[in-house]
Automatic annotation (TrEMBL):
Signal peptide: 1-23
Ranges where the record places region Disordered: 33-78
Keywords assigned: Signal
Organism annotation: Labilithrix luteola
The name this protein goes by in its record: Lipoprotein
């Protein structure tokens, strides 16, 4: 499959997602700057508001692909605003890091077609994030194709197995992005 074919398929998937989300009347709200206290917050404290996208490399980060400069950097305390059974309820989770090895990827179902959003989270918070995502995420009931995984940098994976999805540590925050 050529790159242009992959881009065309990704565009078609995005159109399908938009139509499916409108048909189902459901789409996740994705945020990262709220500081609500809830079940996933390890200490309930919001992180610093300033963020640099040019972190100093460490030996642990050296092997990881660079985080795109246009990525919007979330706070160290991320949020999930439930699009389904707990509609409107916001849960916080730990996304703090000192190196890329502190970070893992968590997934949240964001529409009734089964599309997923990938979040960068602290590895120690993974099981709590996954439990909340199961309760919070939308479970598919629509007759539509799932879009490829979306990352926090706003990009969508070009591959069904999302092997271009990466997680890194930038300015002490875990963030997902699509490797170019």
């Amino acid at each position: 499959m050529t790159r242009s074919s992959s881009i065309a398929l990704a565009s078609l998937a995005l159109v399908t997602l938009s139509i499916g989300a409108l048909a189902c009347g459901q789409l996740a709200t994705i945020g990262s700057d709220r500081s609500d206290e809830s079940a996933l917050s390890p200490n309930g404290q919001p992180g610093p508001a300033d963020a640099s996208l040019d972190p100093a490399p460490t030996p642990d980060d050296a092997a990881a692909p660079p985080i795109p400069q246009d990525a919007s950097l979330p706070s160290p305390q991320g949020t999930l605003t439930c699009p389904s059974s707990d509609a409107g309820v916001t849960y916080t989770y730990d996304r703090s890091c000192t190196a890329a090895s502190d970070c893992v990827i968590g997934f949240l179902s964001i529409d009734c077609c089964g599309s997923q959003m990938a979040y960068g989270i602290n590895a120690a918070a993974k099981s709590r994030f996954d439990e909340t995502a199961l309760t919070c995420g939308i479970r598919g009931v629509c007759d539509c194709a799932a879009e490829y995984v979306r990352s926090e940098d706003g990009a969508t994976s070009l591959y069904a197995d999302h092997h271009d999805l990466q997680v890194g540590c930038a300015d002490q925050r875990c963030i997902t992005y699509i490797a170019k």
